[in-house]
Amino acid sequence: MRTPKLSTILLLAAFAALFFIPFLGWVHLFDWDEINFAECSREMLKLDDYSRIYVNFKPFWEKPPMFFWMQSIAMKIFGINEFAARFPNAICGIVTLVVLYLCGTRLYDRKFGLLWALAFGGSLFPNMYFKSGIIDPWFNLFTFLSLYYFVLYNWKKNGFDKEGLNKKPMYYAVWSGIFMGLAILTKGQVALMVFLLVLGVYLIYNKFRFFFNGWHALLFLIVAFLVTSSWYGYETAKNGPWFITEFLKYQYRLFSTHDAGQAGFFGYHYVVLLIGCFPASLFAIPAFFKARYNSRYERDFKIWMLLLFWVVTILFTIVQSRIIHYSSLAWFPVTFLAAYSFYKWDRKEMNYKRYVGVLTTIMGSIIALVLLAVTVIALNIKQLIPYVHDTFAQANMAADVHWSGWEGIVGILMVVIVIVGVRQLRRHAFMKAATTYFVGTGLVIFLAAAIIVPKVEQYSQAAAIEFFEQRQGEDCYVAALGYWSYAPFFYTHKEKPTNPNSYREAWLLTGDIDKPVYFVTKVDRVDSYKQYSSLKELYRKNGFVFLKREVGAK
Which residues pair with 55 in a beta bridge? Predict the structure, then answer.
């Protein structure tokens, strides 16, 4: 085992910061999750209550507070804005790449560590999530680290041929428990569920030969419990069990039913991983099969990663909700296996499979065509309006957004990456190919986030959010009408209501209101509210209709 280079760590951290931090605030937060979580953090600051989560100033028991604590700190530093809401995940991106470099170096050598970091940072969804304001990047990292330290515990206790494990088994069990506690504080008990399922399948794989000491397992649980008690225990002691009880009930419902709009086909998560984790997903395929192992621990760690992949994907296939976030923990084993393929090919310990280059070229070409099509369609979008039959979509497409044509450079870059990468694969220049694919894909995402996404967002939600921003500081009520959105809360900087009637849509529409009410609805739904004569239409823009009801209007 080689010692990680400090210079490489610093260079990798700087590289990650350069890719993840710029342009965080260039585009509005997206409904629902990004705005939902940012609003929870804003209200945490507003109410000066850091033990209980609120949204629209009502208790929100769907998530624990860890990520909201991070966002709140960022908002105190940078203000209530998009940059602050996404900044914690940019930091997570930097930390994750450094962690994977350190883990990979510890497992094999510096080359493998760098490959694993590049594979994660240079794949589509893993990279994009570090530019988002959602919970999963930190949750996935904590869960992975908990499992990683338990693997080290297993090796130390059972005498695996791995140098560098100089601590007692208890040390690794404690760190595993700490990270498990942090994972639970970030998203809930699903972390422990996945962890225990992976351990259970590993136990079956080893023909029920126990690989852990009962006292060490108890220590792991005690440490995890103590970490989570920093919130569970404090909240219960301060306010009683109601909030925690509702939180646990929600966690149960989450796994037993699917929410509206979250159902999908049976193989949903496998398709999402194949496309969303490009190009790592395709390079990982050969590593799913047997290879030549140089040590017992090498074979064992690969087994752990395969088990993590299958447990996550099968578990969330069984769960009825089909959400991209659910299988995102599988990005760790997928990128590990991609790095493993390149590492073995480079060392001539595994034969390169030509089908990988073919599949990568096909999927990379499709992605490039999609990126080019976005620009071509955008330049001609108004000519396409008559062929679209959805009224709201037609109005979206009529938005006045300037496209120069230079946006197509993002798709062209993807074409170059595909051509250069496949040529390097054919020449067996595997390290160069890995750099081309992963650094190149990271650059494509970087440019897309800076050039394409802000313009696409103007077609979808920008008009409504700009209207909400204009209401900041105005003594009024603002509500979405006929659809659900968290934007009226976050982007108006809503104050805590003093009139409980303001939560009731019927009162806002027909009641004896005490201040003006602004409504935002969609062009295909506005006719449903024509019966309310007190509503005055202000204007329409990009598919949204903006209405106002004055005090005293009947």
Answer: 58
